[in-house]
């Protein structure tokens, strides 16, 4: 189904309008972490905590050819792995978690990545966000991974009303049609990176301005109305929640 058509299935017309605009604005949005299989995505996502996707990709381009399987990470020392991922923040902790995770994959799952949220979050270094990224992008399971961008943008738009990632995830799952969960995750990330920055968001050029409570608060009621639909009203306390959300603890990382 065309994403714009799926967006119209949202129960709330304002949510439907937001999703349709996001679909039109970011038609090519996808996971920015380079990977060829579920295991590579799992490792890349563990590395991405407090590190940019761009830097992770630089690291994994030299890491994956040398260590393609979980067994390979167990054949080198902790110190050797640390050296390979040194350019990534928290590299010592990540090296420990990666080796511990690889040991579990080998001993319990025959070297394969498990396909359920419950199993994934038992792996060292894997929280709910990382698990949802893997489920969604590697296995095609509908999921919304809430990172710092998704948390910030969804609260500003009034799609959610909590600084807590888990509560935000549940609110987004209620508001967004299930078939768009994974794609909406990518749309919100791209919007956060390109326009809805943590500080100094580019509200005047935002295609969602007329639907955004936080944009209305910043620029004044009715801002963006000249582009079409009426300005978005209060939805789930978006603006107030957003002021608590920017760089909230737990929003980034795992």
CATH homologous superfamily identity of the largest domain:
Helix-hairpin-Helix base-excision DNA repair enzymes (C-terminal)
Biggest pleated-sheet summary: none
What's the helix count? 14
Radius of gyration: 19 Å
Q: Decide which structural class fits the backbone.
A: mainly alpha
Could you say how many structural domains there are in total? 2
- Could you give the distance between the termini? 31 Å
Percent strand equals: under 5%
* Fraction of residues in helix: 40-55%
Global geometry: elongated
- Oligomeric category: single chain
Low-confidence stretches: 227-254
Strand tally, please? 0
Can you name the CATH architecture of the largest domain?
Orthogonal Bundle
Order of helices and strands: HHHHHHHHHHHHHH
CATH class of the largest domain: Mainly Alpha
In the CATH scheme, what's the topology name of the largest domain? Answer: Endonuclease Iii, domain 2
Average pLDDT level: 90
Summary?
The chain is built from 14 helices and no strands. It has 254 residues and is mostly helical.
């Amino acid at each position: 189904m065309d994403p714009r058509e799926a967006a119209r299935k949202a129960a709330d017309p304002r949510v439907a309008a937001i999703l349709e605009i996001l679909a039109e604005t970011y038609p090519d949005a996808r996971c920015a972490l380079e990977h060829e299989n579920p295991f590579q995505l799992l490792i890349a996502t563990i590395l991405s905590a407090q590190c940019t996707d761009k830097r992770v990709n630089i690291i994994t381009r030299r890491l994956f050819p040398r260590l393609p399987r979980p067994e390979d990470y167990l054949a080198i020392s902790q110190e050797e792995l640390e050296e390979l991922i040194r350019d990534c923040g928290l590299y010592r902790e990540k090296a420990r978690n990666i080796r511990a995770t690889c040991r579990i994959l080998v001993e319990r799952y025959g070297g394969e990545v498990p396909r359920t949220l419950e199993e994934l979050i038992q792996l060292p270094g894997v929280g709910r966000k990382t698990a949802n990224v893997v489920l969604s992008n590697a296995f095609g399971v509908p999921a919304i991974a809430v990172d710092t961008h998704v948390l910030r943008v969804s609260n500003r738009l009034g799609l959610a009303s909590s600084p807590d990632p888990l509560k935000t995830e549940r609110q987004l799952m209620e508001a967004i049609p299930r078939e768009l969960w994974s794609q909406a995750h990518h749309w919100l990330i791209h919007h956060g990176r390109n326009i809805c920055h943590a500080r100094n968001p580019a509200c005047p050029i935002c295609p969602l301005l007329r639907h955004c409570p936080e944009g209305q608060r910043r620029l004044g009621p009715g801002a963006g109305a000249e582009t079409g639909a009426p300005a978005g009203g209060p939805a789930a306390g978006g603006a107030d929640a957003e002021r608590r959300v920017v760089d909230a603890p737990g929003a980034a990382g795992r």
